[in-house]
Amino acid sequence: MKVLDLLEEIEEIVDTASGFPLTGKIMVDAQELLEIVREIRLELPDEIQQAQWIKNERERIIAEAKKEYEAVIADAKRQAEALVENDDITVKAKLRADELMRVTEETAKQLKMSTYDYVDSILYNFQEKMEHLNALYFGDMFGTIEKTFNDINETLASNRNEIKEMAYRTESGQDEILPSENEEDPDSERD
């Protein structure tokens, strides 16, 4: 990871710099440090793209889970309609369809929860790394970079909160996967 290499280079410059006795201060080449900081700025968009990829992957996984859910529901409806001919079979089919619906909803919920946990752990690890890098290398000397890290951390925290809110809604049953038959599909008005 290029950013980590550049940060190690800054650390090496600081470790090998000449010091002023009794002050704890060191003398470093400002141009050299500023050049490394510029390179870090150029590399940060790659890190942000990785976070975007994680978000896109989360959306893809949720979309796949929804498609699987819809396929299972459609299959359950087809099976139920085929068994309607006999009352006893109809009752059994309804029970089976209800069971399939429950299992499917539980599976979709578990898939969502797993996705939320996975994305949250990646965001949390990335957030921890950013906070660690900020604390170790920048401090007061690089106010501009500190602001950038803080903005990224706020975005990550916001994303984590969004994931946790979605997980909470899913866990508490407030998150509807499919609109009910009485509700209109909001996408249908756009067609």
UniProtKB/TrEMBL annotation:
<protein>
    <recommendedName>
        <fullName>ATPase</fullName>
    </recommendedName>
</protein>
<feature type="compositionally biased region" description="Acidic residues">
    <location>
        <begin position="181"/>
        <end position="191"/>
    </location>
</feature>
<feature type="region of interest" description="Disordered">
    <location>
        <begin position="168"/>
        <end position="191"/>
    </location>
</feature>
